[in-house]
Design brief:
It is a single chain. This protein is of the alpha+beta class. The protein has 10 helices and 7 strands. The strands form 2 sheets. The protein has a 4-stranded antiparallel β-sheet with strand order 1-2-3-4. Strands 5-7-6 form a 3-stranded antiparallel β-sheet, covered by helices on one side. It is elongated, with a radius of gyration of 40 Å.
Length: 386
């Protein structure tokens, strides 16, 4: 690349000096401004080209062309300025060399690595933008259709970006003259000390990795732990923390290492919701209790929101102090929390109507006090006839 740029600069110098009869200094002064002007024109026409291309691509239903365009347009514009600026500096460097200045080698030693590193960073920028935009389109319900969930897509995106950053760092160090093998050897030796110093950070990192691999929950799930005071909806799973929005709308930040040592319940993955209620009727209604239980059982079997394929039980359970208790054990078809309570409300109203239809009543705590008087005492208290 450097040889091509140097040869182009020499060709421009010879053409300006030979055909325009300009001195070396005057010729390259014009050459530097010409290169800057051409760079400006290229950047301007590149913007116009990308704007018109964007208008045309918006008419298509393919998301990948939009992703590629938005990922590449800004790195390309910066690439034009980087190459144009480096070419102008090389042109000025030849002028400095012809004038006998000693600063030319120093300028060249700065520009060449800067251009190489700039190209590497621009390529990395393009790849990171491509991954990020693809991740957004995969998560968006109106974007690219995929069977992957939000958590898996986010995990792949983070791993790919981390891999690119590590690779680019090593390539940049190699371009600047540092030995990668020495860096890797230092990393292996220093990794032990860093591991002891940042053991909590590493524990959280591997905890997040286990969440991505085992997938006990994903973004959007309602989770809770019987071991810790953790309950809410998962909003984000990072490499160090998991953000949970509690039901009182407060954010709860839980280190990922916590999930490796506690039990986590995921109600979002339940297949049904359970209705388990106990109802009591009066002791005076014991003759109609069996008929009430049969009617309640039939009502549940015919209810459109009750899953009859699951366990369904309506049984006389207990002779309590002031009531005859029976229990209802069944499952709803919905798992939605709000819909579940509406179904449960309807079931309980139906049970109350069935009890009322049989001239029975729902029992409540009562006490009966019976007082008996002995005949002799009663006669003794009667007033005597005068």
């Amino acid at each position: 690349m450097e040889e091509i740029l140097d040869q182009d600069v020499l060709d421009i110098e010879n053409w300006l000096s030979g055909y325009l009869s300009l001195s070396t200094e005057s010729a390259w002064l014009i050459a530097v401004f010409s290169i800057i002007f051409l760079t400006l024109l290229c950047a301007f026409f590149a913007r116009i080209f990308f704007n018109r291309l964007e208008v045309q691509l918006l008419k298509t239903k393919n998301h990948w062309d939009d992703i590629l365009l938005h990922a590449v347009r800004r790195p390309i514009i910066f690439m034009i300025w980087l190459l144009g600026g480096s070419l102008a500096i090389f042109a000025g460097n030849i002028v400095v060399t012809d004038l006998g200045s000693d600063s030319s080698n120093m300028l060249l030693s700065i520009v060449s690595p800067f251009r190489r590193v700039g190209i590497i960073l621009l390529v990395a920028w393009f790849l990171i933008r491509l991954i990020s935009l693809t991740e957004v389109k995969l998560i968006d319900p109106k974007g690219i259709d995929t069977t992957l969930d939000h958590t898996t897509i986010s995990a792949f995106g983070k791993l790919l970006r981390l891999s690119i950053i590590i690779s680019v760092t090593l390539v940049v160090l190699q371009s600047l003259g540092y030995s990668i093998s020495g860096v890797l050897a230092f990393g292996g030796i220093g990794g032990i000390a860093v591991g002891f110093a940042a053991k909590d950070l590493l524990a959280n990192f591997f905890g997040g990795l286990m969440i991505y691999m085992d997938r006990p929950f994903k973004v959007g799930d309602w989770i809770r732990s019987p071991d810790k005071n953790i309950e809410g909806v998962v909003e984000d799973i990072g490499w160090r923390l998991t953000r949970i929005r509690t039901f009182d709308k407060r954010p709860l930040y839980v280190p990922n290492a916590t999930f490796t040592s506690i039990s986590v319940e995921n109600p979002s993955r339940m297949s049904n919701r359970r209705i388990y209620e106990t109802v009591g009727v009066r002791y005076a209604d014991i003759d109609t209790l069996s008929v009430i239980l049969e009617d309640v059982r039939q009502m549940l079997e015919n209810h459109q929101d009750i899953d009859s394929q699951q366990t369904l039980m309506v049984n006389f359970n207990k002779m309590a102090e002031s009531s005859l208790e029976f229990f209802i054990y069944t499952f709803t078809q919905t798992t939605n929390w709000e819909r579940y309570h509406r179904v449960k409300e309807d079931v309980l109203f139906n049970v109350a109507r069935i009890i009322e239809q049989h001239n029975a009543q729902v029992a409540f705590p009562t006490q009966t006090l019976q007082v008996e008087l002995e005949p002799s005492n009663a006669l003794a208290r009667m007033p005597s006839a005068q």
